[in-house]
Amino acid sequence: HIFKIDGPLDLTYLLEVYELLKMDKQGLVYQNIKPITPQSFPPHQSLFDVIRKKDVLLFHPYHSYDSVINLIQEASIDPDVVAIKQTIYRASKDSQIMEHLLRAAESGKQVTVLFELRARFDEENNLQYGFQLERAGAHVIYGVPTLKTHSKVLLIVRRTKNLVERFVHFSTGNYNETIAKIYTDASYFTSKKSVGQDATKFFNYISSFGQKPIYNRLFASPFSIREELFKLIDQEIEHQKHFGNGHIILKINSISDIKTIDKLYNASQKGVKIELIVRGICCLIPGIEGLSDNIQVRSIVGRYLEHMRIYYFHNNGKKDMFLSSADLMTRNMEARIELALKITDISSKNKVQRLLNLQLQDNVKARENILGKYNHV
Length: 377
Hints:
With 377 residues, this protein is α/β, with parallel strands linked by helices. The protein is built from ten helices and 18 strands. The strands form two sheets. Strands 5, 9, 10, 11, 12, 14, 15, 16, 17 and 18 form a ten-stranded mixed sheet that branches. Strands 1, 2, 3, 4, 6, 7, 8 and 13 form an eight-stranded mixed sheet that branches. It is globular, with a radius of gyration of 21 Å.
């Protein structure tokens, strides 16, 4: 049947069609790929004990998302956990995460949740869970005036007799169990004091609207992410001038911010090698002689939606790497609350490097952008 509709069409109904097909027409849907249970989190061992010893970086949906859910569950029932603070951009319909937060609030823990009410298609879920959490005694914030909160961060504060510990989960993806099965995202667990202090400052800032804090390892939008990126680009220009090894890799969903594009053009003109992995919108045109001939752009589109944002700067061999919630769009730089976290532990940096190398070598799902037109590799 074909129906002509005068107006926009909400294509989210296709998810329901997919669920029906999955039951009755299995040959028309993908076979499930079982995610890996991370070796970093052995069964029957406290996640706090693991994260206390080392940082852990996972890539979903290849790694099971249960680790994130289990961390919140453990925090909700641990008598030494005094506070859980989290940003929620898209809550799933039947969210285990929300159930654990409700249990934590009902047991007397200090639970603070910031819901974004302008998350397309998920406003109703966010509101419903917000009301439930309020009734359970949680502190619920419904967005920040004039700004969309797009950052994804979880802070758990644990107190024993002689010690206060902060555990942080930082993600490029939404705290949504359904989306976590089809979006590729990075998931970072740490108990480093510098990150815990940054997360505390962040939640204090968005819950009190006080003075903008100074962070240790976080960059925050509005404005600061772009400012810091420009400093890092200038650093690569200097390294190219003195050592000839300026190199930038950016894995993002979209790039349309004119100021950032102009900055990358300038770096290209100075000889810096720039490799962009851009799934969607790309307003930068690579390969223009004298302007962008040192810039390569590719898009990877496959079974999973490429969603993680990674910023890589060679830094004369030191290799600065950042996970971020922000695309290089003006709205992300100026009109949203976004976060970027610097990764410092060697194991996680090596994993990020390997992932970027694999994507830059892809010759199956990748398309290369040549003078503004995409061609299959």
